[in-house]
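WARN  no MSA supplied for this record, continuing single-sequence
INFO  ligand: pyridoxal-5'-phosphate
INFO  echoing inputs
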Amino acid sequence: MIESTELKKNIEDQNSNFDYESDRIWLSSPHMSGEEQKYIQEAFKTNWIAPLGANVDGFEQDLCDFTGAKYAAALSSGTAAIHLALKLCNVGIDDYVICQSFTFVATANAIVYEKAIPIFVDSETETWGMDPKLLEKAILHCISLEKKPKAIIPVHLYGMPVKMEEIMEIARKYNIPVIEDAAEALGSTIHGKQCGTFGDYGIVSFNGNKIITTSGGGMLLSNDKVAIEKARFLATQSRDDAPYYAHSELGYNYRLSNVLAGIGRGQMEVISDRVNQRRSNFDFYQSELKNIPGISFLPEQDFCESNRWLTIILVDPELTGGVTSEDIRLTLLTESIESRPLWKPMHMQTLYDKNPYFGHGVAMKLFKTGLCLPSGSNLTTEELQRVVAAVKRCFN
Ligand SMILES: *Cc1c(COP(=O)(O)O)cnc(C)c1O
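INFO  complex generated
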């Protein structure tokens, strides 16, 4: 890894008009609508600086209206939402939970919070999401050990919808609940229906780099009213209904603050614009870079539309004349442009490489050849052009 201060100095020495900090292009930075302050001020005015209040209720309603989910619980993070969904599926010690290997570590960690065991399943090449055939193989394996999995967690990676209908069919066949990790996929659809509403539970994240943000936060979605009420109960230290503090169950401090929910409400006013902007970033990169031999993009399948949270290029060194995704990453870095390798699959992580894994190397290959390009909805045309020019320079 190149030392960034050294890098900065070198570049600024070469070009006196260039400022490494102020000219930096980030991978995916927060993009405020300007309406957030209105909701935050409301929270201040009414002194609801608490993990409940009108913004929390309003933000939950916004998510229901947008996704079509019947109920929603606003939480402190997407990870908390996965954790509570697992609790609602009665996942406990030594239970098996089937988890997509190609994901951010939070998906798998939540399983281990309950001392359950993640069984990792590889991706297929059309969506980069959980391979339905391997899912069934993994289920049958668990059943042969007389331990039917307690839950299945597919992930819509980088906003691209996974083959959710096939996964639900298999899950229903074996009667296993599905927790749909839509942390990266708010605004993505399958046959026009929003991601996060196919599983028994759906989860969304509002972390700083996601398609919209509350600086940190998450949402649990479900059509099951009782389950969402239970999630809110668990998220507030499982406080029983009594004038004093009465607790008969283990709980968590997982509720989203009313101030942060105000940011979320301001963000939800512009969610469709954000999706459109990210999709247009993708179109721009694709039209500018697709003719370079060895660079390819993930197309959408007929059944879905991606929010294109991050645009990814796959770089095949056999066709690029030896240029790798890492070469491109380093070149972009010298021009103060942040790019990032794809998620390293869970079954390749030191934390999880002893866990059972069903796969054929698809996620591993994508990890080795992929690169996420700057994809924020606040990127200017000029900035997008700078990224494209820098990528093209790797091929001169
Ligand atoms: C971001 C993310 C999460 C976790 O969300 P947090 O809000 O950061 O806790 C879970 N799964 C995936 C796939 C993510 O990208």
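The pocket of pyridoxal-5'-phosphate is lined by residues 77-79, 103-104, 106-107, 155, 181, 183-184, 205, 207, 218 (CB under 6 Å).
INFO  checksum written, moving to next record
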